[in-house]
Amino acid sequence: MVPTWWKKRFGKEHHEKPVDSLSDIEAVGEFLLGVNNDRAKLVKQLEELEELEKERQVGTSGVVQINLEAQAAVLDKLLQTYGDFQNDVDINGLRIKMLARQFLKEADKAGLKDLVREKKQEQKWKGWW
Q: What value does the CA radius of gyration of the chain take, rounded to a whole number of Å?
């Protein structure tokens, strides 16, 4: 038998933070509205890098070093921008997965057992994407 003090200290129950579906839906929507801006910024940086790379391939040895330093500066911006974009995509992907899990919980509570069972069999509902 586990002592009571042990239960109080170490046996705390873990409760999941409730999902605020509307807030998550709004956040994903805002992210998607901003994707075009992020995409345009990334395309511009890639085009700049591509132009520098073309110049490097035909440049002379003295110019190549300056070109590579310029490429380093563009790559710094590109890596930062792309990393931020990737993080936003990952975060919003997690939000969508949480929304799907919350939906299945609500559908189960509402008695839609067959629907829940069907959806739990599908890969995309398992969050394996």
A: 25
Q: What is the pLDDT of residue 9?
A: 72
Rounded to whole angstroms, the maximal C-alpha distance in the chain is 80
Token pair, residue 121, equals: 């069999």
Residues in the chain: 129
> For 86-101, how does the pLDDT look when each residue is reduced to its tens digit (9 = 90+)?
999 999 999 999 999 9
Cβ 107 vs Cβ 115: under 8 Å:
yes
In degrees, to the nearest 5, what angle opens at C-alpha 34 toward C-alphas 31 and 36? Answer: 130
- How far apart are the C-alpha atoms of 98 and 18, rounded to whole Å? 10
Burial (CB < 10 A; 0-12, 13-18, 19+), residue 52, is buried
- Torsion sign over Cα 71, 73, 79, 82: negative
